[in-house]
């Protein structure tokens, strides 16, 4: 797996192949970064359900100032850390939180972290997308100008209009790539 653009272009990332891992396809990744490219420089980026970390590393390569990863799988966390070590002069620009996503988000709250981008890509066969989205909004991890990106299956439950209105969030864009959906959200002023 390679980083496709930016300062780390063509660098290989170590990747552990497993039946439970579904890396973001190159088509979806390219589209995602074409959409957010102009806002990435100097941003704080959270890669939730990081897996191989390919999205977070791509964000860093394209200008994000700091990337935080949350991943519960032991082997994948070791792989993330080994990939970070490959970029020896960049170690301080990455954080890895090992554990359940709620535990990782709790640690970020205690550290008073706020993110410009939160990328949520849970396993498709779970209800984690909705839970993680709600937690990120309710735990105050986003800034007023933040973009929360949800990658999920076309069959996954996503936040409904009532939830979005209640939490002062709006859907700004939706993209379809076969079975995969990308949803882009931002905070809005409440009435």
- SSE run: HEHEHEHEHEHEE
Oligomer: single chain
Using DSSP, what is the number of strands? Answer: 7
State the separation between the terminal residues, measured CA to CA.
45 Å
Q: Give the name of the CATH architecture of the domain at 55-65 and 72-152 and 160-187.
A: 3-Layer(aba) Sandwich
- The CATH H-level homologous superfamily of the domain at 55-65 and 72-152 and 160-187: Vaccinia Virus protein VP39
Number of discrete helical segments: 6
What is the spatial order of strands in the main beta sheet? Answer: 3-2-1-4-5-7-6
Mean pLDDT: 90
Strand content: 25-35%
Structural classification: alpha/beta
Query: Would you give the CATH topology of the domain at 55-65 and 72-152 and 160-187?
Result: Rossmann fold
Q: Rounded to an integer, what's the Rg over CA atoms?
A: 15 Å
The low-confidence runs, each spanning 5 or more residues with pLDDT under 50, are none
Q: Major beta sheet, specifics? A: 7 strands, mixed
3D architecture notes:
This protein is an alpha/beta fold and 191 residues long. The protein is built from 6 helices and 7 strands; from the N terminus they run αβαβαβαβαβαββ. The protein has helices spanning 26-36, 54-61, 74-86, 101-110, 128-138, 161-166; strands at residues 44-48, 66-71, 94-98, 115-120, 142-153, 169-177, 180-187. A 7-stranded mixed beta sheet has the order 3-2-1-4-5-7-6, sandwiched between helices. Helix 2 links the parallel strand 1 and strand 2. The model has no long low-confidence stretch (mean pLDDT 90).
Summarize the structure.
This protein is α/β, with parallel strands linked by helices and 191 residues long. It has six helices and seven strands.
């Amino acid at each position: 797996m390679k980083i496709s653009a930016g300062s780390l272009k063509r660098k290989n990332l170590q990747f552990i192949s497993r039946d439970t891992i579904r890396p973001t396809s190159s088509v979806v990744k390219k589209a995602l970064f074409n959409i957010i490219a102009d806002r990435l420089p100097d941003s704080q980026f959270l890669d939730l359900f990081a897996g191989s970390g390919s999205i977070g590393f791509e964000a860093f390569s394209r200008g994000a100032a700091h990337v935080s990863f949350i991943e519960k799988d032991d082997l994948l966390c070791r792989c993330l850390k080994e990939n970070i070590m490959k970029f020896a002069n960049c170690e301080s620009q990455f954080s890895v939180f090992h554990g359940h996503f709620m535990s990782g988000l709790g640690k970020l709250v205690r550290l008073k972290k706020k993110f410009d981008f939160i990328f949520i890509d849970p396993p498709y066969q779970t209800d984690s997308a909705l839970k993680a989205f709600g937690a990120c909004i309710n735990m105050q991890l986003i800034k007023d100008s933040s973009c929360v990106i949800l990658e999920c299956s076309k069959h996954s439950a996503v936040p409904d209009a009532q939830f979005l209105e209640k939490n002062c969030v709006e859907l700004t864009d939706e993209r379809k790539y076969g079975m995969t959906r990308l949803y882009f959200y931002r905070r809005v002023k409440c009435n």
